[in-house]
């Protein structure tokens, strides 16, 4: 049995300890907001918070997150609703596929650094691929969130 807390709810699962966290979230728990992108941990679309740190769920075995707290895009509004509001206000998403991972990574940044510089934002978001190229709007939504604090 592997026990973890997902979006504030404790879960005990009898599953293969090597199963990637992404598939546990999507296929077993039905939390499909976290997306499968590259499957190698490079694109960032599968990012979730594990104990408030951004982690690529496609390459993280469930055993690595036992007894930890996981926040998916479905639970993010409890942590940083202003970030999501600014994301919508500035029309950040185009296709939207990468946005859950982008939001999770931005939330992790703001938890560790509530007032990042623009360069720190760019550095933190590097590695999250947006096929539509909305990087400027992503940065602006984060800046707006910082300014509203």
Task: Explain the layout of strands and helices.
Elements: E1 2-6, E2 9-13, H1 21-28, E3 47-50, E4 53-56, E5 69-71, H2 81-89, H3 99-112, H4 118-125, H5 135-147
Parallel strand pairs: 1-5
Antiparallel strand pairs: 1-2, 3-4, 3-5
Describe this structure in words.
The chain is an alpha+beta fold and 149 residues long. It has two domains: 2-75, Ubiquitin-like (UB roll) (Roll), CATH 3.10.20.30; 76-147, [2Fe-2S]-binding domain (DNA polymerase, domain 1), CATH 1.10.150. Helix content is 35%, strand content 14%. Strand 1 (2-6) and strand 2 (9-13) form a beta hairpin. Helix 2 (81-89) crosses helix 5 (135-147).
Write out the strand line-up for the largest beta sheet, numbering strands in chain order: 2-1-5-3-4
* Alpha-carbon Rg, integer: 15 Å
Mean pLDDT, rounded to whole units?
96
* CATH fold-level name of the largest domain: Ubiquitin-like (UB roll)
Tell me the fraction of residues in β-strands, as a range: 5-15%
Q: If classified by CATH, what would the architecture of the largest domain be? A: Roll
Which sheet architecture does the biggest sheet show? 5 strands, mixed
List segments where confidence is low: pLDDT < 50 over at least 5 consecutive residues.
Answer: none
- Determine the number of helices (DSSP H or I, runs of at least 4 residues): 5
Query: What share of the residues lie within helices?
Result: 25-40%
Q: What's the overall geometry?
A: globular
